[in-house]
Amino acid sequence: MIKQFTLMVESGKNRFGEQEGFETIEIRPGNTLAIVGPTGSGKSALINDIETLAQGDSITGRRVLINGQEPPESFVREPAFKPIALITQNTRCLADLSVKEFLLMHIRARKPGREDLLEETMNLANTFTGESISLKSRMSGLSGGQTRSLMIADALVIGDTPILLLDEIENAGIFKDRVIQSLQRGNKAVILVTHDPYLALTADRRIVMKHGGVASVIESTGEEQQLIEDLALIEDRLHQIREKLRQGAAFSSVSSKVLMTPVRQSLQLNRV
Length: 272
Known about the structure:
With 272 residues, the protein is an alpha/beta fold. The chain is built from nine helices and nine strands.
């Protein structure tokens, strides 16, 4: 197991030169943070600062510390020692290797002699995607959802990275609830860039972006639980409809009513 780290982000300035709406954000193992805000609000710049372990040398002027100190040079320069993994919605692999060759290469670099992790990684990846991945598949031929499913499983099992940055996984064509559950079981520090209300509300904290900087940090209070439950029900129904569409189903007014009635009933009860 890789050593756990506490990550601390020190505030910088937004695009107007104004100080951000926090002093420090501390991120410990097991924490889940959601970064929210409109397009162009600075979400990508924030995760880029974290991923590169910025030291006041980016446009925002933020500093990122590990265990309260400036990170060692090896964390910045050597991928094998870096405690942060970034998986974006545009993650692609250009190497013309089979999935088996790709994973074994990473195992030999990170955990020599642990070829048994190959099966564990594949099993986990295939719980995240509706399109089964084969060891014989070519990395360059995987779909976007398959690629991100494999990369997340790789980060969890082989890389065993303590800090994960996930950029808009709701658009990745994967089962996001299964991903989050796996991340939480692994005691990882998880930072999500998201427009998804369910993911944002289930996080421990929400970092709200505006004008290129952090406007505020909102702690979860538990008072949003009913809304989270309603959103979970909606998510479940959307998943059912999505899977039926993928399988070529046709819909009628009767089938639509059956699918959506529990959602309508729940929302009506909560208005009373």
